Amino acid sequence: MSLFRYEYMQLALASALIIGLTAPALGIYLVQRRLALIGDGIGHVALTGVGAGLLFQTSPVIMAVVVATIGAVVIELIRERGRTSGDLALALLFYGGIAGGVVLVGLSDSTSSNLNAYLFGALSTASRTDVATIAVLGTAILIAMIGLRPALFAVCHDEEYARVSGLPVRTLNLLLAVTTAITVTIAMRAVGVLLISALMVVPVATAQQVTRGFRSTMAAAMALGLFAGGAGIWMAALADTAPGASVVVLAIASFVAVTLLAGAWRRFRRSRPQPAPPPEPHEVVLGGS
Amino acid sequence: MTPEVITVTHGVVGYGDRPVLRDVTLTVTAGEVVAVLGANGSGKSTLIRAILGLVPLSAGAVTLFGRPVRRFRQWQRVGYVPQRLGAGGGVPATVGEVVAAGRLARRGILRPPGRVDRAAVAEALDAVGLADRAKDPVATLSGGQQQRTLIARALAGRPELLILDEPTAGVDAASQEAFAGALRDFTSGGGTVLLVAHELGPLRSVIGRAIVVHQGFVVHDGAVPEPAGDHAAPDHDHVHPHGPEEPAGLWSTP
Predict the structure, then answer these.
(1) Segments forming the whole domain that contains residue A118
(2) What is the pLDDT of residues B78-127, one digit of tens each?
(3) Are the beta carbons of A207 and B90 closer than 8 angstroms?
(4) Do B109 and A282 touch (CB under 8 A)?
(5) pLDDT tens for residues B15-65?
(6) Which residues in chain B have their CB less than 8 angstroms from residue A282's CB?
(7) What is the mean pLDDT of residues A176-187?
């Protein structure tokens, strides 16, 4: 553990743990709405913000938050309106976002290694202020995602039913879009913008191999994210690899391991003789007439 | 006079250039059980969606409990049962979690669920016979059981008006029979029901009035029409050739 005697390592570990806990709590709603790739798309858009920040010598993170939030709101409004053209509009936004970022970085004095740090994360880049921002915003997002779970679940599960329940569907959708943008951008220094969306999705995909309900999936995904975040930073420090890539490699490894174990467990259960299930009262159980 | 629960006045709905509802006027008063009948593509599902404010009217007006649907806010009085569980669900959810969503209209989004909510969910699950499946993932249920889950979700909010879109489509006859019983229980408690159906089957005895929609017009509003000839036969497969012929005299000029 002597690796963590340096302050920058402690800061990197703290931010990875917060992101590991927060990203799946938000990502589960995106996965449920079959928008697993939206985090990645918003990450592309955020790169334009990073580029603008580097070019105009302002804080790249703040510019990224602003640009990504605008991008997320635009994407959500396109999704709400469009039925068929939404897919293409999203593609345009994504490619425009990453191209804009690369061009703007090229125009500024920064080198491409600077952009690399935002793409894949870098251990040494997290400052105390960064970690404080991640902690404050991460806590706020966690509270919103857990506190509003019934409403967000209803909107992501069955949007029309949520509308007929009188829920503020558009507000809740925009809340998800904006929190996605914020999560992607606050995490980009630690994990890297291209890999943060993996932390939103992969722990959820892993958890749902073995869980039965929404709440248990959320809890398990958050635990897995926490593990991947902590262990990934440790591995990055040990092997001197990019922290973002290490975190995601560990998250994917847990996915593969859990999938194999769950498959083996199911085969084991099936191979054992099972007691005959009680005869199902054939769809006739509704209140008698 | 019985209060009007639903009114539609000269309602027109079109998707793009294609009119789906051309001129629909109807009234449902408290305590009635009304079936909207019609062939596939007749506009009956669109009518339900327009009443719920899910598709906008291009002309005419809809009121729910005396208020224009655009300004209607008391959604806890309405229980909606869609045709099937939406595509939403990349993540597993238990039957109990889905039914609990029916409490949101009553509770609001900020208050965490309390004892009253849990009791209402348990009662609704009991009413549809799924109390022992509350902790099972919805995806493992049969089609009929999933349909019952959606009905339980609507009942959990303790609504005054139930609106159901093809609640018995693809559900076995025994379950339809039981479902008719649940509807009877609901209406004996003073509830109002509007349901869309392709055919009534065992629900026929519960229905008080039928509205037949054909090509976007109401062509019949009154007693439940007798099924014609082999229509009533259980093995009739309901293939309707939709030709140019119209029911002359009802609304078309001869």
Answers:
(1) 2-197
(2) 999 988 776 556 789 999 999 999 999 998 888 888 899 999 999 888 88
(3) no
(4) no
(5) 777 888 888 999 999 999 999 998 887 888 889 999 999 988 988 999 999
(6) 172, 174
(7) 86
A78's tokens? 């396109």
3-state secondary structure of B168: coil
Domain presence at residue A277? no
Q: Evaluate whether residue A242 is within a structural domain.
A: no
B155 touches chain A (CB under 8 A): no
Tell me what ipTM this predicted complex has: 0.83
CATH code, domain with A100: 1.10.3470.10
pLDDT at B111: 86
Alpha helix segments (H runs only) across A56-127: 60-81, 86-107, 112-120
Q: Domain B4-232 has what CATH class?
A: alpha beta
> Does residue A5 have a pLDDT over 50?
yes
Buried b (16+ CB within 10 A) or exposed e, A85-95: eeeebbeebbe
Tokens of A65: 């938050």
Cβ contacts of A32 within 8 Å, gap of 6 or more:
A153, A156, A157, A214, B88, B89, B90, B91
CA atoms within 13 A on the CB side of B228: 2
Does residue A270 sit within a domain?
no
Angstrom distances, CA of residue A122 to CA of A11, A16, A26, B31 = 12, 11, 23, 67
Q: Supply B60's token pair.
A: 């005419």
Q: Which residue is listed with tokens 């004095």? A: A109
Helix (H/G/I), strand (E/B), else coil: B219: strand
Number of domains in chain A: 1
Nearest to A204 among B91, B105, B109 (CB): B91
CA neighbor of A222 nearest in space, from A281, A160, A142: A142
pLDDT band per the 50, 70, 90 thresholds, residue B254: very low
**Chain A residue numbers touching B92 (CB-CB < 8 A):** 208, 211-214, 217
Tell me, yes or no, whether A180 lies in a domain.
yes
